[in-house]
Design brief:
α4 links the parallel β7 and β8. Helices cover about 40% and strands about 20% of the residues. It is of the alpha/beta class and about 230 residues long. The protein has a single domain, classed as NAD(P)-binding Rossmann-like Domain (Rossmann fold, 3-Layer(aba) Sandwich), CATH 3.40.50.720. The two termini are about 20 Å apart. The strands form 2 sheets. Strands 3-2-1-4-5-6-9 form a 7-stranded parallel sheet, with helices on both faces. A two-stranded parallel sheet has the order 7-8. About 40% of the residues are buried. The radius of gyration is 17 Å and the shape is globular.
Length: about 230
């Protein structure tokens, strides 16, 4: 079955990686990239929807039907941010998108890019982990046909992709040798952007036994495309 997918966060490192894999994949027929600014890309599969207010998708509701999956890759760093602001940009945005999509796409697979260390109990001391845990839990309880929470951990960007977060890109520019050492010692703890994209496509088609997708799961699921 050819997939029609929605991607958010395609200007970021993970989202760009997922976008490139979707555009290249023979089983993806159409990609709708929702963002606040244009990707400035031209591809026959790609359609863009420029939308400024990610806390309210009702103005573009009529453009969100007929899709098989949503790969929700957008996110912000919690550094220097209050819990209320971080929750608005993480939980409120994610739930707003998910609620609008659920109205129009009863068979949708929803995938949320979360992070290693996310607190599913929502009771821990770390603010970002609680907020992401709350977001994951609410998405899993929304009644989608399939919902998966990706927690990729350490990510290697491929295909010329650069992180939009300056601190992360600095680390990639100067400390990639350290990531390679970590991968050599703990090979199942590190994934790359291509593997994340392939895993999302494959899990949409084939499902998986778990809703929380950790690095070893990403590595396993992505292999079915090889």
């Amino acid at each position: 079955m050819a997939l029609k997918v929605i991607i958010t966060g395609a200007t970021g490192m993970v989202g760009k990686g997922v976008l490139l894999e979707c555009l290249d994949h023979p089983e993806v027929d159409k990609v709708l990239a929702i963002g606040r600014r244009s990707l400035e890309m031209d591809h026959p599969k790609l359609e863009e929807l420029i939308h400024k207010d990610f806390t309210d998708f009702s103005p573009v509701s009529d453009q969100l039907s007929g899709y098989d999956a949503c790969y929700h890759c957008m996110g912000v760093s919690a550094a220097g941010m209050s819990e209320s602001d971080y929750k608005r940009l993480t939980h409120t945005v994610s739930i707003s998108l998910a609620e609008e999509l659920s109205k129009h796409n009863p068979s949708l697979t929803f995938i949320y890019v979360s992070g290693q260390g996310t607190d599913s109990s929502e009771k821990g001391r770390t603010m970002w982990a609680r907020v992401k845990g709350n977001t994951e839990n609410d998405l899993l309880n929304m009644g989608f046909r399939q919902a998966f929470m990706f927690r990729p951990g350490v990510i290697i960007p491929l295909r010329g992709i650069r992180s939009a977060t300056k601190m992360y890109q600095f680390f990639y520019d100067y400390f990639m040798w350290l990531i390679k050492i970590v991968k050599a010692i703990w090979p199942k703890s590190v994934v790359n952007t291509t593997q994340i994209g392939l895993a999302m496509i494959n899990v949409t088609h084939n499902g998986y036994s778990k809703n929380i997708i950790d690095p070893p799961d990403i590595l396993e699921i992505s292999k079915s495309s090889e």
